[in-house]
Amino acid sequence: EVQLVESGGGLVQAGGSLRLSCAASGFTFAAYQIAWFRQAPGKEREGVSCIAISEGGTSYADSVKGRFTISSDNDKKIVYLQMENLKLEDTGVYYCAADPFTCGLGPDAYWGQGTQVTVSS
Fold it and tell me: What per-residue confidence (pLDDT) applies to 98?
């Protein structure tokens, strides 16, 4: 059974930090690209960051570059998103997604259930 399980969300004040986790199982972790997306109420889902597990390459949305860091523990099959200096506009449901080539954008991508991040003033 393919599973992606997000955890680590919660309520934090602006300027604070939070680390999200995406635990993967049921597929070949090292062959995939795993991405973080977020969606705020009334807004389109947006890509936040992506990591190619085998190559180690990473990418970030301009809005989070310099504040967020994506990483992976390949033995534990977990992808992390370390979020620093959180802003109000970072609020949303954060999802991880996996596919072999397109950072979760492909039609056959696997998706997790999401974890809520709320940033307060």
Answer: 97
